Amino acid sequence: xxxxxxxxxxxxxxxxxxxxxxxxxxxxxxxxxxxxxxxxxxxxxxxxxxxxxxxxxxxxxxxxxxxxxxxxxxxxxxxxxxxxxxxxxxxxxxxxxxxxxxxxxxxxxxxxxxxxxxxxxxxxxxxxxxxxxxxxxxxxxxxxxxxxxxxxxxxxxxxxxxxxxxxxxxxxxxxxxxxxxxxxxxxxxxxxxxxxxxxxxxxxxxxxxxxxxxxxxxxxxxxxxxxxxxxxxxxxxxxxxx
Length: 242
Known about the structure:
The chain has 11 helices and 10 strands. The protein has helices at about 40-50, 70-75, 95-100, 100-105, 115-125, 125-130, 140-155, 170-185, 200-205, 220-225, 230-235; strands at about 1-10, 15-25, 30-35, 55-60, 65, 80, 160-165, 190-195, 205-210, 215-220. Strands 6-7-8-3-9-10 form a 6-stranded mixed sheet, with helices on both faces. It has a 4-stranded antiparallel sheet with strand order 2-1-4-5, covered by helices on one side. The chain is globular and about 45 Å long. The model is unreliable at about 240 (pLDDT under 50).
């Protein structure tokens, strides 16, 4: 569904990604774990068009989307829930969600039943239903994170990129975010998940990749990575409570 091959990316002269390749099959959750500065968010940005790759290819459902503008990549069916949430603070919760469906209103994505999907998003994220008419900027950090995820779902995408959905959240909200990811997975949503809580990410994922210094150091079924002594020692030591 989403295939990244030999991806190189840089900020100016600072090379961050050194030829990474990964595959996100349809209906699966794939996680990308690694320490801070390994290049996880850069990978997400290069996939979604926020950063132009220097080399390599990104294909979505067989279509080459490498280096396209972000709005064209969204129209192709890739939704990005970015690190740091990035909600539209001066718009209501409901309008943020409808903005997520914008390519469906313009005809560049299959329209489907937007109203039904809006109700479904509110069911998935009950806090958002309670606050649907509030300005997004007045929500708590956890609520903004849920709004960013729900906005991505509203695209009715082929693939969702979830970049650090638990960042800065209290443990109880981290648990809730992962319950929602589990439910989306159960509904057949294809997701690439970047996450600081490696243990929680591997528990929900089907397959995992470990990124070190801009290169994939190890990859395999999530269950085998959970039991890999090197992965355990490097990434699972302090996060096993999740």
